Amino acid sequence: MSQHGSSDGCPAAGAPADNAAHLLIVDDDRRIRALLSRVLSEEGYRVTTAADAAEAMARLKSLSFDLIVLDVMMPGEDGFSFATRLRAGASELAQVPILMLTARSEADDRVRGLETGADDYLGKPCEPRELALRIASILRRAAPRAIAGPPASVRFGDFSFDLGRGELRQRDEVVRLTDREREMLRLLAENAGETVARETLAGSGVAANERTVDVQVNRLRRKIERDPANPLHLQTSRGAGYRLLVDR
Questions:
Q1: What's residue 149's pLDDT?
Q2: Among the listed residues 92, 93, 89, the one whose alpha carbon sits nearest the alpha carbon of residue 70
Q3: Which of 29, 39, 51 is nearest to 3 (CA)?
């Protein structure tokens, strides 16, 4: 397996553009560092790696990063402690987005990770596509908002949605949507990567309630997800609503 980013901390070689987002991968497993470097370099990111928290801090002090992909179980300082230390600092390092990627995927671990200030938490093993979507979503939320307003269209996987026409396509084929599905998908696309509350998605009218929102979301998932029970694009924000993860 080729390795575009290496454990010596050098940025990924090859294709990524000079202005591509720069990711720091922190994991004590050399094979996982190599795999993540390859996958994320192929997604167009610049990648630098570190084997532990001490090496990661050295990289952070000498280079600028747009996001940290952080393991939890590492020798020395663990990921929870490292994230807490970064967030408690007074420098700009406290603002760098963090995605925790770890085999510790129990609910208590996820809660603890998010309480440290991590922006997202993903269990190992994970689908490379889901990892790329999560990273893209975090980077989008961290970027300054454009004044121009919502995009004309969004892409996610094999699908594209034109917000103006309300048209959903899978490659070249138009996917039929009901009026409610179209309205909900437009709201989600206008706020791509952000949680849209159930109340907002419910809209108005006689059939407007949170239960019908869940039903409509399940129908949408059957149209846009390979596995509706484990959605990659249209995700639940527990207790809050739903969010649509789109491509960069």
A1: 54
A2: 93
A3: 39
Q: What is the pLDDT of residue 8?
A: 43
CB 226 within 8 A of CB 181: no
Distance between CA 50 and CA 91 in Å, rounded? 20
The dihedrals phi and psi of 137, each to the nearest 5 degrees, come to: -65, -45
For residue 42, what are its two tokens?
A: 């192929």
**Contact partners, residue 48, CB within 8 Å, separation at least 6:** 5, 9, 10, 11, 12, 22, 23, 24, 25, 59, 63, 65
Q: What class, spelled out in words, does domain 153-244 have in CATH?
A: mainly alpha
Residues of the chain with CATH 3.40.50.2300: 22-142
Amino acid at 184: M
The pLDDT, as a whole number, for residue 164 is: 86
* Contact indicator for 48, 41 with CB cutoff of 8 Å: no
Sign of CA dihedral 242, 233, 14, 79: positive
Spatial distance between the Cα atoms of 102 and 53, rounded to a whole number of angstroms = 15
Model-wide pTM > 0.85: no
**Which stretches does DSSP call E strand in the chain?**
22-26, 46-50, 67-70, 98-102, 120-123, 153-156, 159-162, 167-170, 173-175, 196-197, 234-237, 241-244
Please determine, looking at this structure, whether the domain spanning 22-142 carries the CATH number 3.50.50.60. Answer: no
Residue range 94-112, pLDDT digits in tens = 889 999 988 876 777 778 8
Distance of alpha carbon 159 from the chain centroid: 18
